[in-house]
Structure formats: structure tokens, C-alpha cells
Design a protein that fits this description.
- The complex is a heterodimer of chains A (315) and B (287).
- By secondary structure, chain A is mostly helical.
- Chain A is 77% helix and 0% strand.
- Chain A has a single domain (87-312), classed as MetI-like fold, CATH 1.10.3720.10.
- Chain A is built from twelve helices and no strands.
- In chain A, helix 5 (87-122) packs antiparallel against helix 6 (127-141), helix 10 packs parallel to helix 11 and helix 10 runs antiparallel to helix 12 (279-307).
- The longest helix of chain A is centred in the C-terminal third of the chain and has 38 residues, at 223-260.
- With 287 residues, chain B is an all-alpha fold.
- Chain B has ten helices and no strands.
- The chains are: A mainly alpha (315), B mainly alpha (287).
């Protein structure tokens, strides 16, 4: 187990290192000089030069790359070109919306998908199964931002149960804040719940065909008892992997959904930073999201290996 | 008991054919709309006609008009062309690069090339797809071509992994051994013996990636990073409809339904194809 853990840890570090290079090189290719952009159209060339100097833009790329990575490790992400505040503060501020939104959506998706998948699997090929699978087909095909617009139209504009967008802040209280995140979380959760329900269903159908389930049936358990006591627990393993993977889809999906609902989260931050050429913010947010995704994948792998010893050998 | 199981099995088989037919019909509808738009459109999509703005669907404008008086049917038709072209070329990029990479990784299993290709795949998978797509279009500028590149890059590891996995199990088979004895090199074996045998897998995956590509293109153009005006695209039609939704809900319904039906069609077709092409699944259904 220890060798497996070290192997996976090494590959995690390598992936992250490679990711920093990819992000850095891509940002280097962005046309335009951030210093000139910050100073505006009619800036004095000398002032722009001084700013370039101050931002360290005149140093060789390799030096700037190392400085950036050193800063990342130390938790110093640099100072935003446009907001003139440390990027760390900006991110810390915005993550208070994006992370709860992502987790909210993840919980919703799991709460919908697992019962739906179990229900469909236990009535395999029956009318109930066909209906659940039909709904999930539709759920996968619906773009989440369109679903978000429809939710706004029905629940905010027509019924007036929710506001159409914006965020009151956590200071306004837990419930108002969660209420503002509810429609976005539902919009984010729908396609993921559809995928998860399908995975749950097929995993359960697979395990129901295993020998130990047959043994349980032979011992006199009904199909339903065998499902709940034996099959479900094992079927949850692939489902957990997908839930881990969905974290990254939801986190990235939040970028678009935050724009639909005007939520001041990481997604809106990165999007505004791109249009304002605030490259240091773009770099930091992207590497942070990549970090989150790789770490979650790593944890899922570890959990997987802890549950199923066969996976520890080679990967 | 056996009787109901038999009935269920037949019901399942019929459903496979039906989902393939329904999916195929939907896909064909949008494909024809896209192709038809090359030679004929009910109205010009670049002409603004303020007098007939925000019209509800009628005999003159089957799907109504938008806030600039443009005909929605014409826009959906041209939008279909944009979406389908972007998604299709992006799948092509994935197949063109991914399949040879996967096949060569499998041919030199465990070698440095295999390792390099697989680690490269892991790296791409570490980026949330949408995030990298947004970065690529932000760096190189928004537009249909950069959207294709952004979506295509994510298709490469998908096809590389799939063809490597499919090829690995084939390399141990007797017919490959026979080909090696006959003196064929790895490249020739991959092309002549491995590739035809993983074609089914690739076709099914291509359908799925095609539908994901349509969704991705819609998402990118919704946030303004896809095809640029005046070229209509479904995603931007939705973005423009957003502020008008309480005045004219049909503006949001029409392009949204176009996306949903196209993606649904492709997914149903992919599911049906997989069930029909995969002999393992077929046997399971028979057993």
C-alpha cells in the first residue's frame, strides 16, 4: 500500500509540475503587454516601462516561471494587475461562493442519482426503469446554462420564489445565501445526476449478477434483501469514482453557471480577468482548479485502493 | 419467470433498435437542416428587420423572429451548421491524433513512448475541460477555429486511451501472432489487423464525442468565446435570448431545444450502435 501511495503521490506532483508549465507557456502566448494594458491607451511609454520593471515582466521567462512557482508553494500568488490587491485575497473571497456551490450541486446530484439508479436497477427493463432512463437521457442532453435560464424563467420571473441572480453574501445569513445558490446548484447538478444515475444503475445490475449475490439468494434472501445487503455496497465503488470525477466537472461548470446567475465566484473572477488581461489572476485560478481536481482524483484513487486491494498492484 | 424474462429481453432488443432509429432520425433532421442552409434559408440571417421584431411563430416565420427581426428558423439552420461543423471537426482532430497515438502506445506497450503518451493523457485530464477550452480561446482569441482546437484537444486523450485499451487485448491474439510470424512490422499490424477490429469502439465513441462537442460549442459560444457574429450559433442565440426571456420566451426555447434534440439524437444513436455492434453485449442479452 505504501509503495502504491508513494507512486501515486509522485505522479500527482509530476502532473502538477507539468500543469504549471502548460499554464505558464499558454499565458506567455497571450498577445498584448499587461503593463500597457493596465496603464491605458495613452500611457507614457516611460511609465509603462517602469511598471513592466516593477511587475518583473522584463526578466527572462524561466526566471519569471520559477518566481511564480516559488510564490505558489509559499501561498503568495502575486498582486492582481487590475484589482491591485493580492490574488490570494481575491481567490479566498470568491472561493466562498464557488466551493459551496460545487458541493451543494454534488450533494444534490448524489441525493437524486443514487435512489434513481437503485430504483431503475431494481425494476430492470420495466416501465419504471425505462422512464428513469428516458429522463436521464434528456438530462444528459440539456446544456446546464439553458436549464439555468429555464429555471430563472419559471422560478424567478414567473413564480418569484427565488431571485434571478446575485448573491447576498454569507453575512446575510446561511439560509438567504443558500437560497441564492439553490437554482444555480440545481442547474449544475442536473446533467451530473443523470450520468450518476446511469452509472449507479449499471453498476448495480452488474453486481446483482455476481456469485456472492447468487449465494445470498440461495441462502433464502429475496432479491430486494440481496440488493440492499450485498449488491449495493459493492456497486457504490464505481459510483464513488464518478462522484470524485464530477467534482471537477462541477467546479468548471460553475464558471458558466456563475455567469448566468451573476454570482461573484471564481468563474466570474477568471472570466473577467481574461477580458481584462489580468493574467496573474487567470494563472492562479487555473492552477488552483487543476490542483483541486488532481488532489480529488488522488484521494479517490486512494479510497479505491483502500477498499479494493487488487488495485494497489500497478496502475 | 422465464416467460417474463424472455419478454423483457425482447423488449430490450426492440428498445435498442428503436433508440437507434429515433436517434438516427433526429440526427439526420439536424444534419439535413445544416446542409440545406448552405443552399437555401427561409430568410437572410444577417438582414435586420426591426419592423418584424419579436414575432411569435406564425405562417411567415415558423419559429418566430428575434429582437432584431431575424427569422429564428433560418438562424437555427445556420446555427446547426456551425455547431455540427465545429463538433465534427473536433472529433476528427481527436481521431486523427488520438488513434495513431493509442495504437503506437499499445504496439510498444511498457516502452517510453507508451509511458509518455499515457502521462500526457493524464495531464490533459487534470484540466477541467471547459477551463482549458476557455483559456485556449482567451489566449488565441474567440472564434470557431479556436473553439475546434479547444474541443479537439480533449478528444485526443479520449481516443488515444480507447484505442490503446482496445489494441492491447488484440496484441495477444493468435491472428496478430500469425501476422508477426509473417514478418509484418508493428505499424502494419496496427493498421491492417488492429484498427479494423477496434473500429466499432471508435465509431460509438465518436458519436458520443460528437454530442459532447455540440454541448461544448454551445457553452463556449454562450459565453462569447465560440463563433463570432454575424455567424449565428446556438449558444450565442441563447446568450442573446437571456435578457429577453420574460418578453419572448420562444427566443430561448428554440435554440435550446435544437441543442437538446441534436445531443439527444446523437446519444440515442450511439447507445443503439453500441448495443448492436458490441458482440459481448449482444451475447449478454441473449444469455
Amino acid at each position: 500500500m505504501l509503495t502504491y501511495l508513494l507512486q501515486r503521490l509522485a505522479s500527482l506532483v509530476l502532473t502538477l509540475a507539468a500543469a504549471t508549465i502548460v499554464i505558464f507557456v499558454m499565458i506567455e502566448m497571450v498577445p498584448g503587454d499587461p503593463a500597457a494594458f493596465m496603464m491605458g491607451m495613452n500611457a507614457d511609454p516611460e511609465a509603462v516601462g517602469a511598471l513592466r520593471d516593477q511587475l518583473g515582466l522584463d526578466q527572462p521567462a524561466a526566471v519569471r516561471y520559477l518566481d511564480w512557482v516559488k510564490g505558489l508553494v509559499a501561498g503568495d500568488f502575486g498582486v492582481s494587475y487590475t484589482y491591485k490587491v493580492p490574488v490570494f485575497e481575491l481567490i479566498a473571497d470568491r472561493i466562498g461562493i464557488s466551493l459551496p456551490l460545487t458541493l451543494y450541486a454534488l450533494v444534490l446530484s448524489t441525493l437524486i442519482a443514487i435512489p434513481a439508479g437503485v430504483f431503475a436497477a431494481s425494476r430492470r427493463n420495466g416501465a419504471a426503469d425505462v422512464s428513469v432512463m428516458g429522463v436521464t437521457q434528456l438530462g444528459i442532453a440539456i446544456p446546464n446554462f439553458w436549464f439555468a435560464m429555464l429555471l430563472v424563467f419559471v422560478f424567478a420571473i414567473t413564480l418569484r420564489w427565488f431571485s434571478a441572480g446575485g448573491f447576498p453574501g454569507w453575512d446575510a445569513g446561511f439560509l438567504p445565501a443558500m437560497k441564492a445558490l439553490t437554482l444555480p446548484a440545481i442547474a449544475l447538478a442536473l446533467p451530473q445526476a443523470s450520468i450518476l444515475a446511469r452509472v449507479m444503475r449499471s453498476a448495480l445490475i452488474d453486481t446483482m449478477g455476481e456469485d456472492y449475490v447468487r449465494t445470498a439468494r440461495a441462502k433464502g434472501l429475496t432479491a430486494r434483501q440481496a440488493l440492499w445487503r450485498h449488491a449495493l455496497r459493492n456497486a457504490l465503488i464505481p459510483v464513488l469514482t464518478i462522484i470524485g470525477l464530477q467534482f471537477s466537472f462541477l467546479l468548471a461548470g460553475a464558471i458558466i453557471i456563475e455567469n448566468v446567475f451573476f454570482l461573484p465566484g471564481l468563474g466570474r473572477l477568471v472570466f473577467q480577468a481574461i477580458t481584462q488581461r489580468d493574467l496573474i489572476v487567470v494563472k492562479s485560478v487555473v492552477i488552483l482548479l487543476v490542483f483541486a481536481v488532481t488532489v480529488v482524483t488522488f484521494l479517490v484513487d486512494m479510497a479505491y485502493a483502500a477498499v479494493d486491494p487488487r488495485l494497489r498492484r500497478g496502475g | 419467470m422465464d416467460r417474463t424474462r424472455d419478454e423483457r429481453r425482447r423488449w430490450g432488443a426492440a428498445r435498442t433498435t428503436r433508440s437507434f432509429l429515433v436517434g438516427g432520425a433526429l440526427t439526420l433532421t439536424f444534419l439535413s437542416a445544416a446542409l440545406l442552409s448552405l443552399v437555401w434559408r427561409p430568410y437572410d440571417v444577417t438582414r435586420l428587420d426591426v419592423a418584424s421584431r419579436l414575432l411569435a411563430p406564425s405562417a411567415d416565420h415558423w419559429l418566430g423572429t428575434d429582437q432584431y427581426g431575424r427569422d429564428l428558423l433560418a438562424m437555427v439552420m445556420v446555427g446547426a451548421r456551425t455547431s455540427i461543423a465545429v463538433a465534427l471537426i473536433a472529433v476528427g482532430v481527436g481521431v486523427l491524433f488520438g488513434v495513431p497515438l493509442g495504437l503506437s502506445a499499445a504496439a510498444r506497450r511498457g516502452g517510453w513512448l507508451d509511458e509518455f503518451i499515457m502521462r500526457g493523457n493524464d495531464l490533459i485530464f487534470a484540466f477541467p475541460a471547459l477551463l482549458l477550452a476557455i483559456m485556449i480561446t482567451a489566449v488565441f482569441g474567440p472564434g470557431a477555429v479556436n473553439a475546434i482546437i479547444a474541443i479537439g484537444i480533449f478528444n485526443i486523450p479520449v481516443f488515444a486511451r480507447l484505442s490503446r485499451g482496445g489494441a492491447l487485448s488484440l496484441w495477444t491474439r493468435d491472428f496478430v501472432l500469425a501476422a508477426r510470424v509473417a514478418g509484418k512490422g508493428p505499424a502494419r499490424i496496427s493498421a491492417e489487423h488492429i484498427l479494423p477490429n477496434i473500429m466499432n469502439l471508435l465509431i460509438v465513441q465518436a458519436t458520443i464525442q460528437f454530442s459532447l462537442g455540440i454541448l461544448a460549442e454551445a457553452g463556449l459560444s454562450y459565453i462569447g468565446l465560440g463563433a463570432q457574429p454575424p455567424l449565428p450559433s446556438w449558444g450565442r442565440m441563447l446568450a442573446e435570448a437571456q435578457t429577453m426571456i420574460s418578453l419572448a420566451p420562444h427566443l430561448a426555447l428554440v435554440p435550446g431545444l435544437a441543442i437538446v434534440l441534436t445531443v439527444l439524437g446523437l446519444n440515442l444513436m450511439g447507445d443503439g450502435l453500441r448495443d448492436m455492434l458490441d458482440p459481448r453485449l449482444r451475447r449478454e442479452r441473449r444469455a
